[in-house]
Write a structure and sequence with these properties.
single chain; 83% helix; 105 residues; mainly alpha
Length: 105
């Protein structure tokens, strides 16, 4: 007798949903962080201390926002791909069940 093949479409769907929610959270945080920085504008001053602080902060801020938005985008794509995979699993199971029920032994 052949080995049994199974899948966990519900588990894939739950994982995809959680990943989609987490990705949206990353995106929201990145957007809020950028909006907050945009709202206050440049406040570094023109002296050496202010410019020194700005040179360290601005780059780190841009990297953080970029990372958050990038993670949100990649995670959202992965969630969409997992959802498609889950639908394909269900469709394949349904097709196989229909084929098996039509076999004449």
């Amino acid at each position: 007798m052949p080995a049994e093949i199974s899948n966990d479409a519900e588990g894939v769907a739950a994982t995809a949903g959680a990943l989609g929610q987490m990705s949206q959270t990353w995106t929201d945080i990145g957007q809020r962080l950028q909006s907050a920085a945009d709202a206050v504008g440049d406040c570094w001053g023109s002296d050496d201390v202010g410019q020194g602080f700005a040179s360290g902060y601005v780059s780190a801020h841009q990297q953080l926002v970029s990372a958050l938005l990038g993670n949100g985008q990649v995670g959202g794509g992965a969630a969409a791909n997992a959802t498609t995979a889950m639908r394909n699993l269900v469709d394949t199971d349904e097709d196989n069940a229909q084929t098996a029920s039509s076999l004449d032994f």
